[in-house]
Fold:
Amino acid sequence: MKKSDFHFDLPTELIAQSPLSERSASRLLVLDAAAEHCVDGQFRDLVQMLQPGDLLVLNDTRVIPARLHGRKSTGGEVEVLIERVLGTHEVRAQMRASKTPKEGTRLELGDGVPATVLGRDGEFFRIRFDTPEPLDAVLHRIGQMPLPPYIRGYDAERDRSRYQTVFAREPGAVAAPTAGLHFDAPLLDALRARGVKFGHVTLHVGAGTFQPMRVESVHEHRMHAEWLNVGAELCEQIRATRAAGHRVVAVGTTVVRALESASRDGIVQPFAGETQIFIFPGYRIRSVDALITNFHLPESTLLMLVSAFAGRERVLAAYAHAVRQRYRFFSYGDAMFITPPKDS
Structure:
């Protein structure tokens, strides 16, 4: 299996550069893999599509303002993209500079916040913020939301709120769980009134989610590590939902990765820690019965996960339909609701 097996042609004008004025006004492409067909709809149609007793699982991670700009003590410009917070004042980050910073390099970030490069950690750098100010306060003041590279331009007022789900509560992600961006308070209230149940996982999405696969063979790729927490309460919710004959519906590929990482012999169990799980066709997803997800990049690991759930040919055919119907793609774009084939 090759990454080129997951290629599709996408006109650049279909890459959404900004969110819609209303979160839940997005379109929704419904793919019923068992019936081998897709239907065009609206995201608010979820209220009719989900049944009382269904469990909607959300990723409650909160995106931190992880992109920073500054200078080295020698004057050269640097850009820092935090991958993970390691302690009260230390982070692991990607760095862009004219010359690779060495251990001990002094930095001034944002409005003059001092920092020191402590060393390398593989492709990342370890950086210490040399200030008594709490790190979250520093990032809130000088950081930008880490928009993906295909979104051109940054609007601080807009992106601080819109590149964040309305149910975000656990800070640590450096990319948004984008399927959740479509939910607003009125839609959540309507789903509750419908009798839909809610559960939460935490998976802190890392910057590696945007890194292209560098090998042609899918089997040779190694995923970046991400931290997750699946609690006992959610595990009991899943057990009770399945026992009552209702569906577990994942909001986003991050939820699928979290639940599959926490599964043992097909049963989701409490788990907190790192995962490098790589889900692609041939892997059987058993933790969820339906998936809400955005449209993903060509040849990406996220597209491969969706293909594992619904079948590569079906997913690529649905994507071709979405292109013809001028759906909006990627983080600020439209969404899909997918149910698997009967043989899954």
